[in-house]
Design a protein that fits this description.
heterodimer; A: 111 residues; alpha/beta; Transcription Regulator spoIIAA; 4 helices; B: 141 residues; alpha+beta; Heat Shock Protein 90; five-stranded antiparallel sheet; globular
Chain lengths: 111, 141
């Protein structure tokens, strides 16, 4: 899985460079996030602008990251969702769990 | 029969094929004649149910990755109805006993079958020969 990671204003921006976030690569995303949490990086923004497709495993990996960040007094926020991906969050009511922003700048600025 | 489409696919029991199967489903949805709904939404939904059903079959139903335990999928369009079947040779499960998804968001799993039920018109899980089949039907008109 290709993920670009940059730090800005104390917040870690993870840009998922994959078209799909599904049962094939969601496990890897979970372990990448866990490594960051273990390094003490607990404020994370995940940019999903390149993700065209997400399934229940992909949603589950993000929920896992959100829970882990919260448990460490941090936060995990999302930005730049494509419309079909956003509709999956709405269908599963996860748009009420995550803070979702139109752009990474807005997401980073919200911390 | 007019406008009959039947696609029969067998792939190894591995998640690396999810994207390929999903894409086949999307292409079929985009190619349908006389569909007046949102074609891109239908393509996503077909991709989604194929991905969910296939990963479910890989995760829960097939005990070991081997060619004899591969996943068998059929996609057919008959009389304005899209019918997707995902066959597995595993032990099966009872969809009636699955708890509903946790809408407060604390749970990581348990959304797959909910998503399938949400976007399809009819979902049946039944015994078939030496295994089970998850049959998912969507009306196209």
């Amino acid at each position: 899985m290709v993920v670009d990671i940059n730090e800005k204003d104390g917040v870690l921006l993870m840009e998922i460079q994959e078209e799909r976030l599904d049962a094939h690569n969601s496990g890897e995303l979970k372990s990448r996030m866990l490594s960051l949490f273990e390094e003490g990086k607990v404020n994370i923004v995940i940019n999903l602008s390149e993700v065209r497709f997400i399934d229940s495993s992909g949603l589950g990996a993000l929920v896992s990251g959100y829970k882990n960040a919260s448990a460490r007094n941090g936060n995990l926020k999302l930005c730049s969702l494509q419309p079909q991906v956003k509709s999956m969050f709405e269908l599963t009511r996860l748009h009420r769990v995550f803070e979702i922003f139109p752009s990474s700048d807005e997401a980073i600025g919200s911390f | 029969m007019k406008d009959l489409i039947e696609v029969d696919i067998k792939v190894p029991n591995h998640t690396r094929y999810l994207g390929m199967i999903g894409k086949i489903g999307e292409d079929i949805a985009r190619t349908l004649k006389n569909y007046e709904g949102d074609r891109e939404e239908l393509a996503y939904h077909v991709n989604l149910v194929l991905t969910e059903a296939m990963s479910n079959a890989i995760r829960h139903a097939c005990p070991s990755p081997s060619s004899s335990n591969g996943i068998h999928i059929t996609i057919s369009i008959i009389r304005n109805s899209l019918n997707i079947r995902v066959f597995d040779k595993g032990a099966g499960f009872d969809p009636e006993t699955l708890p509903p998804p946790d809408f407060k968001g604390e749970s990581e799993g348990g959304r797959g079958l909910y998503l399938i039920n949400s976007v399809m018109d009819k979902v049946i899980y039944r015994k078939h020969k030496n295994g089970y089949v998850l049959e998912m039907i969507k009306r196209l008109n």
